Amino acid sequence: MVDRKQLAVTFDGSFEGFLCVVYAYYYDGIMPLHIQDADNYQQALEVEEYYVSTDFDKAMRVQSGIREKISAQAEDHLFYASLTEGNDKFMDMFRYVVLGFKTGITVDNHLQQDYVLGVHKRARYVAGEAHLLTGFCRFAETKQGVFYGAVTPVNNVLAILAQHFADRMMNQAWIIHDKKRHKAAVYDGNEYIIGDVPQSVQVDFCDDEKQIQDLWGTFFNAVTIKERINKSLQRNNLPLRYRGNMLEFQHLR
Fold first, then answer.
1. How far is CA 157 from CA 24, 174, 205, in A?
2. Bridge partner residues of 175 (DSSP)
3. The predicted structure's pLDDT at residue 253
4. Same domain (yes/no): 108, 154
5. 181 and 148, same structural domain?
6. Do residues 7 and 30 make contact, with C-beta atoms less than 8 angstroms apart?
7. Does residue 133 form part of some domain?
8. pLDDT for 43
9. Same-domain pairing of 123 and 9
10. What is the mean pLDDT of residues 83-110?
């Protein structure tokens, strides 16, 4: 049995960084008692902190190992779970990987393990929100001809949204702005990048955009049958937290 040193492990919070924590467990002999994003690290009493640097070669080795020795589905579960908020996800993900390397493709059948169930729940939560936002994201044309859409998701789903719209709006330049995290995905018609955005960023829309929005608002109100409005059902199908970025609710009377 490997004599592993028990440590409070910190890293940069990225998915690649997490994969490097897994690498350090197998190749550097560490035993994480806690795994936390270094930016949100809370000192654990009497436990030594150990920072794991992100090395993309190591991360790709672990990711390939997960895909080949466990399953592509397990890889997806882990990536989606990593996009939820909070530090508690990382220990669940870590235990899931370790079990997966022991059991292979059957890891997802071990739902009696709380951490397996935890990874599944987080992955479903992210997938569900990303799916909703592919329909709720609204684009408006800027003066530069780039289409701009703002979102404020609970989870960090920007990369999922970017891939979705890159596949469907292949010839149109666009920006998806995560206003909650001050990040944006920028697509030039060929590929997208994700980067930080200043909190004070201003967007200049084209001259026709306000007229188009007003026409859309008029249409939305015209087809609404007030006697048949069911606000409870509406909230179930379209949570209030998404409406601030949706044009039709800004014009609803």
1. 27, 17, 25
2. 148, 186
3. 46
4. no
5. yes
6. yes
7. no
8. 73
9. yes
10. 96
Q: What letter represents residue 63's amino acid?
A: Q
CA 90/CA 18 separation, integer angstroms? 8
Residue 13's domain comprises: 5-128
User: Whole-angstrom distance between the N-terminal and C-terminal Cα of the chain?
Assistant: 68
Work out the angle at residue 161's Cα, subtended by the Cα atoms of residues 123 and 170, and round it to the nearest 5 degrees.
Answer: 140
CA distance 56 to 68: 18
Residues 22 and 63 in one domain: yes
Question: Secondary structure of the chain in the HEC alphabet?
Answer: CCCCEEEEEEECCCHHHHHHHHHHHHHCCEEEEEEEEHHHCCCCCCCCEEECCCCHHHHHHHHHHHHHHCCHHHHHHHHHHHCCCCCCHHHHHHHHHHHHHHHHHHHHHCCCCHHHHHHHHHHHHHHHHHHHHHHHCCEEEECCCCEEEEECCCCCCHHHHHHHHHHHCCCCCEEEEECCCCEEEEECCCCEEEEECCCCCCCCECCCHHHHHHHHHHHHHHHCCHHHCCHHHHHHHCCHHHHHHCHHHHCCC
What does the pLDDT look like over 151-164, one tens digit per residue?
A: 999 999 999 999 99
> How many structural domains comprise the chain?
3
pLDDT digits (tens, 9 = 90+) for 105-150: 999 999 999 999 999 999 999 999 999 999 989 898 898 889 999 9
Residue-wise pLDDT tens digits, 183-236: 999 999 999 999 999 988 888 888 776 666 666 666 666 767 776 776 676 666
Query: Which phi-psi region, left, alpha or beta, contains residue 29 (left: φ > 0; alpha: ψ -120 to 50)?
Result: left
Residues 241 and 91: their CA atoms lie apart, in Å, by: 29
Note whether 124 and 144 are same-domain residues: no
